[in-house]
Specification:
- By secondary structure, this protein is α+β, with helices and mostly antiparallel strands.
- It has a single domain, classed as Nucleoside diphosphate kinase-like domain (Alpha-Beta Plaits), CATH 3.30.70.141.
- It has 7 helices and 4 strands, in the order βααβααβααβα.
- A 4-stranded antiparallel sheet has the order 2-3-1-4, with helices on both faces.
- The radius of gyration is 14 Å and the shape is globular.
- InterPro entries: NDK-like_dom, NDK-like_dom_sf, Nucleoside_diP_kinase, Nucleoside_diP_kinase_AS.
- This is Nucleoside diphosphate kinase.
- Its cofactor is Mg(2+).
Length: about 130
């Protein structure tokens, strides 16, 4: 079974949407195999978004993700990476398909409620940042 990593972002946590988001994944035959709620550190967020360092939106992303609690999920299921990205919808909620999580809950391009890894390599990289045992 394939695994993928999801982050329920601060805007969704603040608006009490955690249960609705997890329910969407579970109703689509994805199983939560690990979950962690935390306040991200600056170091974690900068590492997570390191590929965007130097881009005009990098500082905005870092500031946003460190602004409140997040919930990190490791999901498992057949074709999990692609299925979760489809359930999440396009990054910009205004462009996302009806019924997707970002269309339903996203506020704007930055505060779009959820993040999902886009490849097996990213799942491993992001899991090491967010789900590392201390």
């Amino acid at each position: 079974m394939e695994k993928t990593l999801v982050i329920i972002k601060p805007d969704a946590v603040e608006r009490n949407l955690i249960g609705q988001i997890i329910d969407t994944y579970e109703r689509n035959n994805l199983k939560v195999i690990q979950m962690n709620m935390l306040k991200p550190t600056l170091e974690q967020v900068q590492k997570h978004y390191s590929e965007h360092q130097g881009k005009f939106f990098f500082d905005r992303l870092v500031e946003y993700l460190t602004s409140g609690d997040i919930v990190v999920l490791l999901l498992e299921g057949k074709g999990a990476i692609e299925r979760v990205r489809k359930l999440n919808g396009k990054t910009n909620p205004e462009e996302a398909e009806e019924g997707t999580l970002r269309k339903r809950f996203g506020i704007d391009h930055t505060r779009n409620s959820v993040h999902a890894s886009d490849s097996e390599e990213k799942v491993a990289y992001e899991s090491a940042i967010w789900l590392a045992k201390s």
